[in-house]
């Protein structure tokens, strides 16, 4: 008989005491024992068993689709109708393994270097906390959210709708920090931020480092965040410190941020120069192609998703404007032939947050194609179609995001 192998416990992993998770562990213990005998790393073991990796063991596994040890998305039926995404349901996307577990033991000692300002300086989180504090609700969404809907089979994680969540970030406005250091140097055009992961040996650092540049207009709303949903920023989400650029795609929100620099040029790191660029299917990435910066208007239905009973039906979803506030959202139960306005639920948490919505209707027996279409405050509606592009970025077309409901 094989003795079950306990998964290593993370510093804060309440998820291990969740009964659903324990059942799953017992069930897969044999499989895990055999792979560990073959000498697989703990990450590979988590991957093959599709359980949560150690650094995310505190997450609610029943709410997540674990694509790999570094990619987990929120299930469409776990998004719920609350205004915020609970941290234990929030998606995770790491391009590199995260820093070691003790990185968040003494979060106030983490230091970030600020360059490209009049008086460059290294500041600890404790010092940042003494400069100012704001809390901002914003949608965090991966550029590849919706990639699964591209028919050309875009390479990368096959995210459906769940590489997105709306959360509260607490930190100091980057503008406050920069002003305290004399302001950006003349000629600064980009804010270039570097992630603090240890880079794998033997590779050109430029090909693996998570270093992203955003235009200096992002300074208006950017913050250096140490809090997520009113708790210390967990390691899985970039703790102790992360750059947050409300309204910008996930990749620009650099986790474990160790340097923020005002620069004339964009970084030549691969993730910026050729990665996260919109180009035609079959094309290679290049710096002259549009970068994944400001997000576009988007919505999707979250319930019901497959079956319901005839009669009165509440159709729920979420809608956001991306880099500007969402103004409204409509729902169609006949695949986009007829539209009616839905009603927003709960408080408005500001222009970068999403709004849960509900549309009450009567459904007869049969199949119904449910779709939703949001419009931002500038009057931009979600398009019907998608813009096919090599890596499957930025999909906000309403047709592909619909669901087919069987009413019986
Ligand atoms: N340092 C660092 N920052 C990073 C990443 C990373 O791998 N390393 N991934 C980026 C990508 S592609 C996304 S979508 C978001 C995901 O944030 P989350 O894991 O907190 O959900 O973080 C971004 N910031
Ligand atoms: Mo991403």
From TrEMBL:
Cofactor(s) it depends on: Mo-molybdopterin
Compositionally biased intervals (Basic and acidic residues): 384-402
Domain Oxidoreductase molybdopterin-binding, first and last residues per copy: 105-268
Chain intervals for the UniProt region annotation (Disordered): 371-408
Example GO biological process term?
Answer: sulfur compound metabolic process
Domain of life per record: Bacteria
GO molecular function annotations of the record: heme binding; molybdenum ion binding; molybdopterin cofactor binding; sulfite oxidase activity
InterPro entries this protein is in? Ig_E-set, MoCF_OxRdtse_dimer, Mopterin_OxRdtase_euk, OxRdtase_Mopterin-bd_dom, OxRdtase_Mopterin-bd_sf, TAT_signal
Could you tell me what this protein is called?
Answer: Sulfite oxidase
């Amino acid at each position: 008989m094989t003795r079950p192998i306990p998964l290593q416990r993370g510093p804060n992993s309440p998820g291990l005491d969740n009964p659903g998770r324990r059942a799953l562990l017992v069930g897969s213990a044999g499989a895990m024992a055999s792979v560990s005998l073959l000498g697989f790393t703990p990450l590979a073991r988590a991957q093959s068993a599709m359980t949560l990796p150690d650094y995310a063991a505190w997450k609610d596994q029943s709410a997540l689709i674990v694509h790999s040890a570094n990619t987990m998305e929120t299930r469409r039926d776990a998004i719920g109708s609350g205004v915020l995404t609970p941290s234990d349901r929030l998606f995770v996307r790491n391009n590199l393994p995260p820093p070691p577990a003790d990185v968040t033991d003494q979060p106030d000692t983490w230091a970030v270097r600020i360059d490209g300002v009049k008086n460059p300086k290294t500041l600890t989180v404790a010092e940042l906390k003494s400069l100012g504090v704001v809390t901002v609700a914003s949608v965090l969404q991966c550029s590849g959210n919706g990639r699964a809907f591209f028919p050309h089979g875009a390479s990368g994680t096959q995210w459906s709708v769940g590489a997105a969540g709306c959360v509260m970030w607490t930190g100091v406005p980057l503008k406050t920090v920069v002003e305290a250091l004399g302001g950006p140097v003349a000629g600064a055009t980009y804010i270039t931020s570097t992630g603090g992961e240890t880079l794998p040996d033997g590779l050109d650092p430029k090909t693996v480092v998570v270093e992203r540049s955003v235009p200096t207009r992002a300074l208006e709303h950017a913050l250096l965040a140490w809090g997520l949903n009113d708790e210390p920023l967990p390691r899985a989400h970039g703790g102790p410190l992360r750059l947050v650029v409300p309204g910008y795609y996930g990749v620009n929100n650099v986790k474990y941020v160790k340097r923020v620099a005002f620069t004339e040029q964009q970084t030549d790191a691969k993730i910026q120069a050729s990665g996260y660029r919109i180009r035609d299917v079959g094309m290679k990435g290049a710096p002259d192609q549009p970068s994944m910066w400001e997000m576009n208007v988007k919505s999707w239905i979250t319930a019901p998703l497959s079956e319901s009973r005839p009669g009165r039906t509440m159709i729920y979803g979420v809608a956001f404007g991306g880099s500007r506030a969402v103004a409204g959202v409509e729902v169609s139960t006949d695949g986009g032939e007829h539209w009616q306005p839905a009603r927003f639920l709960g408080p408005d948490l500001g222009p970068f947050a999403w709004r849960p919505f509900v549309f009450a209707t009567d459904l007869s027996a049969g199949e119904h194609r449910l779709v939703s279409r949001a419009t931002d405050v500038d009057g931009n509606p979600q398009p019907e179609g998608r813009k096919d592009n090599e890596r499957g970025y930025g999909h906000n077309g309403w047709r592909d995001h619909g669901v087919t409901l069987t009413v019986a």
